[in-house]
Amino acid sequence: MSQDPVTGTRRLVAGVDSSTQSCKVVIRDLDSGEVVRSGRATHPNGTEVDPAAWWDALRSAVAEAGGLGDVAAIAVGGQQHGMVALDVDGHVIRPALLWNDTRSAGAAADLTAEVGAEEFARRTGLVPVASFTATKLRWLADAEPENAARVAAVALPHDWLTWRLRGYGPAGQSPLGPVLDELVTDRSDASGTAYFDAATGAYDRELLSLALRREASAVVLPRVLGPAESVTGGSGSLADGLVIAPGCGDNAGAALGLGAATGDVVVSIGTSGTVFAVTDAPVRDASGSVAGFADASGLYLPLVATLNAARVLDQIARLLDVDHAELGRLALAAEPGAAGLVLQPYFEGERTPNLPDATATLFGMTLTSTTRENLARAALEGMLSGLADGLDAVRSHGVTAERILLVGGAAQNPAVAAIAAQVFDAPVVVPEPGEYVAAGAAVQAAWALTGERPAWPVSLSAEPAPDTRAVIREQYAARR
Prior knowledge:
Layout: E1 12-18, E2 22-29, E3 35-42, E4 48-49, H1 51-64, E5 71-78, E6 84-86, E7 96-97, H2 105-115, H3 117-124, H4 133-143, H5 145-149, E8 153-155, H6 157-165, E9 184-186, H7 187-190, E10 196-197, E11 202-203, H8 205-212, E12 223-225, E13 231-232, E14 243-244, E15 248-249, H9 250-258, E16 264-269, E17 273-277, E18 291-294, E19 300-306, H10 310-320, H11 324-333, E20 342-344, E21 361-363, H12 372-395, E22 403-407, H13 414-423, E23 428-431, H14 436-450, E24 460-462, H15 470-479
Parallel strand pairs: 1-5, 5-14, 5-15, 9-12, 16-22, 22-23
Antiparallel strand pairs: 1-2, 2-3, 4-7, 6-8, 10-11, 13-14, 16-17, 17-19, 18-19, 20-21, 23-24
């Protein structure tokens, strides 16, 4: 147990995960990483949200976690890409557009045409898709030009929450007022905007101006802090006197929380699906399949994202009128390949491949193949095959996959783990359930507090034997 040598009190750090669906707060022992207590609050549904709801949820989750009175440091991990546009008085100009809001798909295509995919990849490591902040700013400029003209600062969800946590905010609604220059961020989240170069650590103001359709040299962007840098909470703030780490994007936070190292590839099955690895060198993929993000440790995080992950299983479970345990049992009762039944699971369009208007398709329906068991298996195989395609894309940039870390709520279903061992051609391990984004934020808080990155242990809940069945991906590729 870690104790302050002067006071004898336990030293604690807090990590926040402000995700699409909820806000989670975990408070951990600085020395062991043991979770001491936690809290949670829900977020509204939808692809656009008033950021005030995130702030309310953060305060509620902190209160449920027992407050921050005995906490020494805190960091906020958050969903990437969301556009939080602020006016000169610190007011949110309109509800934030989230990563999964696809209305900016046309804007993404326009920006790519204007700059060129190769040039965008060279300058930012990204090729625009509807998820990225730059495309949402272009949508704002085209659809709501009066609001675009009021933009004095652009923040991401975790940037804005860190700002509020420190005591800054709209005039008359916060202890320290609307000091826009106090906005801070980190490389991982900034690298998902499509106007930041993770390799140089600099914003690309020309691309920001292009997105907003106006000169944007005076628009405030959050100052980018290094992995162990910190700021403090102001007097009267929720984090009064605390060390506040830079925070991070959600996937970078998960990598920190999992202790992902070279040779590890993380496959996360949540609201979205992600495949990412920590690398020493930046990735610049002009095809747009792999996003060349930064990680939260000073390295890089090449990542493939899919829009359709756990909710594919939710939908098929509802269709079959079963719970997830029974869905898994049905899937394991069918043979690999589901007798030729293949689900291309683009229920909400898709980000990788970039098909925002696509719909899901079920192939190979015959009187023999169309059974409850085969449909259940086709759902799991289709979701996992899309993620395996992502692994191939990451590998094409020199990433080595010695181990697949399968995380997210769906990963705890034994059928998902078993079928993943049949879909992927690298060993699969399933870490114990945990709030890994919040855990990573707590790692960052400890790092900022002590100057050293902690190495807290991660336990495994499953390690299925490798059982690759080529038929699964061959069928999926034939229908793609």
